[in-house]
Amino acid sequence: MSRSLDRIVIINDRSLALGGSASLSLLSARLFLERGIPVTYISGDEGADSPLATDVEMIGLGWRQLLDRPLLNRGATGLYNRAAEDMVSAFIHARDTPGTAYHLHSWHQILSPAVFRALRPVEDRLVISTHDFSLVCPNGGYQNYQRGEVCGLTPLSGPCLATHCDKRSYADKAWRVARMLILRQMMEMRRTRALIATIHPAMHSWLARGGIEPSRLRAVRNPVTPFLDQRVEAEKNSDLFFIGRVESEKGVDLALEAARLAGRRMRVIGDGAMCPPLKAKFPDSVWEGWRTHSDIARLIGAARALIMPSRLPEPFGLVALEAMQCGVPLVAFGDAFVAREAAELGAALIAAEKTAVSLGAALGLLKSDAAVRQLSECAYARAGALSHTPQGWRDALIALYQEQIAKPGAEA
Q1: pTM above 0.85, yes or no
Q2: Which residue, among 117, 88, 81, 109, has the nearest Cα to 11 in the 3D structure?
């Protein structure tokens, strides 16, 4: 007998829009309410300060994220937060019904692998979002940060354990490995009954390499709202744009050097640890700082192209799609999943190698106004196929929940 979806329980480290997973989980809650579906939002932080607090049932643990806690408290509770397990378990024990679906977003900063143990009784009705590769890879990115290379090793294999790939130290790598081993004890991803919601189908082979059963993977592309409704006439512009965190893994230094080689000015929207040295090295660039979506809408009309030069495999690239869907061409590396698709649509250029010289050569193709106009028109007309609208995304998530609660054995 089929069951109706009578409540969605969203679980996330934070209840404020301070990152991608939090922003998406909050957006989903608002969209579910529009469909008349009751929502409970369980977070690791306070919860009461959330913009949803007046409309959604909020349950908060009241903890701060790892780096904001005392040093001696981080290690143990980051590996296993017993309080988070108790909070989620208490809700399930008191409130669960056969028509309740559960959606776990981010768990790394507060909730820890303990939340997976709490969710085991409702695993048949659980959807787990993976915005990166943290369900299988200790550092979450299939990236060797020490070498600046994409990692081709099998996670937790002998060669993986022997490799120092962490941003900081091998001790940090060991801690991340321990957390991954605890996660596997709490919920074995090779045999999970949960559905794993990815943000791009190209992620599936990477997750399968880490042991997730491919039949449990479902691609649900993120929702995108373009910066502008009309096409940016990129062929009339000169400036190149970078939007994102100014950190080494995002490759903004490569973009700045490539722009210099191409003889174009770079405008950087974002902030991060690399800002001070890069501002000194590239004084002719324009540093806009962090900007809201509406702020960027006012700036992006001056863009000839957007550069997305990430050193990591880029599973989605939200700002790239927000820009392309208003006609701004994309220049990126080939392991950015969306960039490869956009290039096939005629909306993007791919640099042959992960170097500033190769990126600069790709930027050289933007000299022709006619070529830029063609890229821009293709981006504006076709890039919408690479993402969901907010309403389409909501409906795709609801379809996953209904798939879970409708199958045999989905009762608690």
Answers
A1: yes
A2: 88
